């Protein structure tokens, strides 16, 4: 099958058309989700609430906050098991590595937010990716004085250090997720759009 190479402008138009298609489909769903979130937060709209007393029923909040600790009591992480006699050492290493990556990615609060979205809205979105971040830091640079190396606050240099390098998980804002409305599962989903807000400076840096 021959594919036509599109220009950047045509690609941008195609992405925008897909975004508008998904947005038209999701706008009424987002309105219902707003009502679900207001129920969770026990929000009373003064414009539509028919009574003078500001009395609310915190049942939804209580149910959600009661269920979450039960669902996150244990880490939902799998385990590696040896198949042959020589696999025992490897499985110990893999299990330790998985626990290390789980804690380094700070998965517990992310897990709580993910499950909270599931309980309030009935669904949640997240992405697993390889996260590589670098950061510039200042450090003192040694100077040679009278044949000796001396570190002084006045002598500094900027170095680039690796801040994070490994698998990571991100809980996505459900209102910024626009999946293919014609998809019935993730296998036949043609595209998935996640809306992000960035400054011009951040875009130029990328």
Name the features.
single chain; 206 residues; alpha+beta; two-stranded antiparallel sheet; 6 strands; extended
Q: How would you describe this structure to a colleague?
A:
By secondary structure, this protein is α+β, with helices and mostly antiparallel strands. It has five helices and six strands. The strands form three sheets. It has a two-stranded antiparallel ribbon with strand order 1-4. The longest helix has 33 residues. It is extended. The protein starts with 7 loop residues before the first helix and ends with a helix. The mean pLDDT is 88.
What's the helix and strand layout?
Blueprint (H helix, E strand, L loop, with lengths): L7 H33 L18 H13 L16 H17 L2 H15 L3 E16 L2 E3 L2 E3 L5 E17 L4 E3 L12 E3 L5 H6 L1
Antiparallel strand pairs: 1-4, 2-3, 5-6
Helix pairs in contact: 2-4
Biggest beta sheet summary: 2 strands, antiparallel
| Unreliable sequence segments | none
Mean pLDDT: 88
Shape: extended
Give me the secondary-structure category.
alpha+beta
Task: Write a brief structural summary.
41% of the residues lie in helices and 22% in strands. It is built from 5 helices and 6 strands; from the N terminus they run H-H-H-H-E-E-E-E-E-E-H.
């Amino acid at each position: 099958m021959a594919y036509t190479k599109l220009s950047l402008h045509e690609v941008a138009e195609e992405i925008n058309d897909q975004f508008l298609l998904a947005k038209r489909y999701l706008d009424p769903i987002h309105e219902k989700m707003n009502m679900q979130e207001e129920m969770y937060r026990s929000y009373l709209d003064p414009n539509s609430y028919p009574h003078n007393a500001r009395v609310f029923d915190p049942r939804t909040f209580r149910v959600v906050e009661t269920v979450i600790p039960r669902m996150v009591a244990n880490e939902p992480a799998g385990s590696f098991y040896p198949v042959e006699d020589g696999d025992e050492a490897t499985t110990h290493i893999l299990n330790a590595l998985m626990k290390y990556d789980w804690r380094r990615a700070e998965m517990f609060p992310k897990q709580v937010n993910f499950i909270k979205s599931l309980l309030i809205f009935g669904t949640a979105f997240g992405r697993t990716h390889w996260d590589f971040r670098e950061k510039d830091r200042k450090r003192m640079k040694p100077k040679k004085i009278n044949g000796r190396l001396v570190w002084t606050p006045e002598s500094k240099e900027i170095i680039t250090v690796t801040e994070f390098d490994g698998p990571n998980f991100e809980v996505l804002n459900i209102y910024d997720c626009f999946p293919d409305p014609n998809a019935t599962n993730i296998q036949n989903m043609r595209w998935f759009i996640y809306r992000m807000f960035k400054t011009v400076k951040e875009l130029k840096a990328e």
